Amino acid sequence: MINNRGIINHGDRNNFNNVAIGANARASSLAPAHSSDQAVEADAPWDCGIVTILSEELRSVIDELKLSRHKTPNGLYFYQGEHTSPDATLRVVATQTQSQGQRSTMAALENLRRYYNPRLWALVGIAGGIHDDHARIGNVIVSTDVVYYESRKINPRGDTRRRGEHRQAPAHVVHAVNAYFTDHGTPARINGHNAAQVGDPYEIYPGVIGSGEAVIADRDSDIRSYLTTYHEKVLAVDMEAGGLSQYWQENSVHGAANPGWIVIRGVSDNADEEKGHSHHERAARNAAHVLGQLLPYLC
Question: What distance in Å separates the CA atoms of residue 270 and residue 217, rounded to the nearest whole number?
Fold first, then answer.
């Protein structure tokens, strides 16, 4: 009779851990080494993770919050720092998506969660205004409500029925935004806050963001008509807020606390035939400045 004990290994590049062979053998468990995918400075809390889409948006956030560049071992870039207010010093980090749209936004949020795990997500940048009174170029929309408009049914003879998905930020974020507007008025009014904008005031409104995959450059677009009919307080449109609200909802099933979220959009155009790039910088800097004002309320 043949009695075999041990391990037979056919092939190469195999890795065996915590293996004990023979009578009275023991295997001691070693603590696993930290992976490069672990959160950066995981033991220290990060208060706000900021997602931007365009370079002008990220640069505006970096300048406003005085952030410095950090590169992870696998090549991802983040911009991190501290924002000091009278009440607290907040640790913030910003990143830029690879491209426009909902999917790239969700990937950027996953990177923020993996490396920093912030307790608030903020989507900051520009949007197209669709409300003539409130969403004028240069104004800023602060949104805790998102309507995703892409879901639809296409019937025979070209009849399209849109099915909006409406999501609201967590209650504590809504309360924080309400407190900001209680203190500053609705709309809140800001005079130009840097040398390039002296004498160029703008207004900040709470409102609903419509979000989908289309760049809208037509005042008569059926999307604009649908959104204003669906909810009269839809003030602006973007291509990313739907991904933010969807990612938050799908992660709300986890046991760990799910971050709050907010959308802050500077109006760079009127989503019409005159849409262009000439007001991107102005709108992005206004949005970044409003983020700085809101952070003490949110975190």
Answer: 8
Count CB-CB contacts under 10 A for residue 172. 11
- Alpha-carbon gap, residue 289 to 76, rounded angstroms: 25
* pLDDT one digit per residue (tens) for the chain, 299 residues: 555 555 555 555 555 555 555 555 555 444 333 334 454 545 577 999 999 999 999 999 999 999 999 999 999 999 999 999 888 899 999 999 999 999 999 999 999 999 999 999 999 999 999 998 899 999 999 999 999 998 888 888 778 888 889 999 999 999 999 999 999 999 999 986 655 555 679 999 999 999 999 999 999 999 999 998 899 999 999 999 999 999 999 988 876 778 999 999 999 999 989 898 999 999 999 999 999 999 999 99
**Location of structure tokens 């004498």:** 199
Query: Tokens at residue 172, please?
Result: 């504590």
Distance CA 239, CA 221 (A): 16
Q: Which two tokens stand for residue 156?
A: 């025979």
Tokens of 50: 């900021």
Neighbouring CB atoms inside 10 A of 2's CB total 3
* Fold exhibited by the domain 48-298: Rossmann fold (3.40.50)
As to burial, measured by CB atoms within 10 angstroms (0-12 exposed, 13-18 middle, 19+ buried), residue 230 is middle
Domain positions in the chain: 48-298
- Which is it for the CA torsion 276, 282, 286, 289, positive or negative? positive
**Three-class SS of residue 170?**
coil
**d(Cα 96, Cα 240) in Å, to the nearest integer?**
12
SS3 255: coil
- For residue 60, with 0-12 CB atoms within 10 Å meaning exposed, 13-18 middle and 19 or more buried, which class applies? buried
Give the pTM. 0.83
**Whole-number Å distance between alpha carbons of 185 and 178:** 10
Q: Give CA–CA dist 131/15, Å, rounded.
A: 61
